[in-house]
């Protein structure tokens, strides 16, 4: 086959089981040249096959890439891909430091997994499944050379909810086979209700053309994984929450890659979240790159192919189980969405196709459709099994979606709509959004309500606007949970300090002068506490510093039960005695500290507890006391005398006080 023909890459599974290696070798025979495909045996890394497409695009002088140069029909990797190609084949290019992709599985099953290179011989169906692949290309420039690395962040998913008898599982830096742990019936009911999930990553060198791209040396890349066969770097998540577990459907799996150079050295962090929180399971570094200019980033480039003749794109693919296999979908339903970091927030790409082009793993009997949610604004794809596969092509274009851009006067905060909060930084929020009507609410990072309005977006519309000018007050010095307020021209707004840092209170304002007053929580003084501020057609910010003037006090409440009506009882705390009647509470106002107390009641009734210690740390505390009939021996017991036990206040320990209030 012509060396310039379209090629695809697969997940590099390092197989150490002799039985499985033999099975894969039987299906990896190189066909004749007339078959239009070629490949190599998967040792030591089960790497991608080469798919002839008749489209010679390596080194082509074409002004843009052809998304169909690798796949024209199923079996193919399906999902959502940004090739950098817009309507009418118009190319574009952009760089980003991070991709965050999401797939929500309602159900999943496969009828079987076929051998690589398009042969019809199916591997045993028991336990074999699919991969969810986040495929991106890292690009950086070092010492005058441009480097391209294909980065895969992968979730392996086997229907049935347990490690299957024929599927590899990564453990101790090698792939192993777990035998006899799954049902033999591939269509058992649990196959579309649960799945076994594990996470792996691969890196290939696309900086030059070759059977697997350019060579990859152990000295070129370092992380939790290893370089196998000089062609692929591979690592897997181990001993982390959410890895190698059973997930019940419906379930959401998120994959994230982040490129943030440390010093001048490029690196990629691999993360996943399947309901157990974000887990970083590998950070791959490129220590040879000591003279990087312009940083490192993931690139989408629709103008040209990379040096290995493949796409410089971003793909979220549903593919075969590994080693270039393809899986035949059965009872399956899921949705996908992908987002790139635009410098302010994670945004869906403006154009997308329903299939990928760089990976060799694929599926058939899949129907892919665009999915627009007019409530949440989400844009993505839906995949279900079908008797006939989907037609490969555009998923959506810029003309079918809308783009919303909001430029608030605060540097960071949250824009909420459709029941979801979207955080942003850098004074701007931008999103590719489904056409529809939305109720937008702007919040400060501290949780203060700033602005609310409704907007309607039509397909193909770009809507950009700046909310009204704000007079914003930003506090410093208050512990988390504190409530403070500002009064401007008789209008009061309040805010609660959140755990993430200082909070803000904002007012819409026109040009003019405004009187203000600041009110803080007890024990704190504001600077300035009041004054005049001028607004001249632009946002104005007033910084308010709070300082601790006196220790705050909190209610320490003792409640009673069990006494007859009219009976009296008492509590001694720090040498101070208070008395109450049945059904009433006894309340002390105390500072943070550890206190000893004693309780007494009328003759014939014994309190529980009769004495003890209680800790007050930044919040009110209630101690319930239950009275019961006492035995004869208990009548006349002498309670602890007032002041017998020491009091250990937190007075003067400002850092301890702040910590307590922040809990």
Determine the structural class based on helices, strands and strand pairing: mainly beta
What is the helical fraction, as a range of percent? under 10%
Identify the overall geometry. Answer: globular
List how many beta strands DSSP finds. 52
Point out poorly predicted stretches: 1-7, 12-61, 117-127, 164-189, 632-663
Largest sheet: 12 strands, antiparallel
Radius of gyration: 32 Å
What's the end-to-end separation, in Å? 66 Å
Average pLDDT for all residues: 80
| Strand residue percentage | over 45%
Q: Helical segment tally?
A: 2
Report on the architecture of this protein.
The chain has 663 residues and is an all-beta fold. The strands form eleven sheets. Strands 3, 4, 8, 9, 12, 13, 14, 15, 19, 20, 24 and 28 form a twelve-stranded antiparallel sheet that branches. A hairpin with a 4-residue loop joins strand 33 and strand 34. The longest helix is centred in the first third of the chain and has 9 residues, at 18-26. Mean pLDDT is 80; it is low at 1-7, 12-61, 117-127, 164-189 and 632-663.
